[in-house]
């Protein structure tokens, strides 16, 4: 397994601790140092191998991996370059698994804009959130593409819960059931044509 843009290695370590042979790559030397420190708590055969590297221009690894996994990375990189690298590094019968945010929901887009204006995210990250047409282009590169969307109602409800409970903790018994309702609504909404694209994640 290749953890593409592994950050501080949490996913890599989780998969390795369950028997997968994992390689994690990230451009941040500091993140890789922390990932290695975390992994050192596990036995040698449960530790991923971590490398510092630019995932847009990795050398080697051609046809090496059964799985390439990318989680929350795609708005930090050039989408087409990243996908080309993933395609190069999987075996002919391998799979690429992507989990990231989508850029169609007006509520989450407002949150991104506020975060950008406050200097919490870069302009690149703000302007390069994945969109549905980018996912459609995956069909040109891969023989089979399956897309599943999540969190249309769950994310706004989560923010609402946090805001309410921060101010009035006593309301927790009344507010917590909202999460279950949001999950039920999401399961329905993601089956409605045209609504899925507004999910927060895919």
Structure characterization notes:
The radius of gyration is 19 Å and the shape is globular. It is built from 9 helices and 5 strands, in the order βαβαββαβαααααα. A 5-stranded parallel beta sheet has the order 3-2-1-4-5. The mean pLDDT is 90. It starts with a strand and ends in a 13-residue tail after the last helix. It has helices at residues 10-17, 29-39, 79-89, 106-117, 123-127, 132-136, 154-167, 172-175, 177-189; strands spanning 2-4, 23-26, 49-52, 65-71, 90-99. With 202 residues, it is α/β, with parallel strands linked by helices. Helix 7 (154-167) runs antiparallel to helix 9.
Briefly note the structural class of the backbone: alpha/beta
Shape: globular
Poorly predicted regions are: none
SS elements, strand count? 5
Beta-strand content bin = 5-15%
Distance between the termini: 20 Å
Q: Helicity level, as a percent range?
A: 40-55%
Mean pLDDT equals 90
- How many separate helices? 9
Q: What's the arrangement of strands in the largest beta sheet?
A: 3-2-1-4-5
**SSE order in H/E notation?**
EHEHEEHEHHHHHH
* Rg value: 19 Å
Largest sheet, if any? 5 strands, parallel
């Amino acid at each position: 397994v290749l953890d593409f843009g592994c950050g501080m290695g949490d996913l890599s370590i989780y998969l390795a601790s369950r028997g997968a042979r994992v390689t994690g790559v990230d451009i941040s030397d500091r993140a890789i140092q922390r990932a290695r420190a975390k992994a050192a708590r596990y036995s040698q055969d449960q530790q991923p191998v971590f490398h510092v590297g630019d995932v847009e221009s990795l050398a080697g690894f051609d046809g090496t991996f059964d799985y390439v996994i990318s989680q929350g990375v795609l708005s930090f990189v050039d989408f087409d370059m990243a996908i080309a690298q993933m395609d190069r590094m999987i075996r002919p019968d391998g799979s690429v698994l992507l989990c990231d945010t989508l850029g169609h929901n007006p509520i989450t887009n407002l949150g991104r804009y506020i975060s950008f204006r406050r200097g919490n995210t870069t302009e690149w990250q703000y302007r390069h959130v994945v969109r549905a047409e980018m996912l459609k282009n995956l069909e040109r590169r891969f023989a089979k593409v399956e897309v599943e969307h999540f969190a249309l109602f769950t994310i706004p409800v989560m923010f609402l819960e946090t805001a309410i409970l921060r101010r009035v903790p006593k309301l927790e018994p009344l507010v917590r059931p909202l999460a279950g309702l949001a999950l039920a609504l999401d399961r329905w909404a993601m089956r409605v044509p045209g609504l899925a694209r507004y999910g927060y994640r895919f």
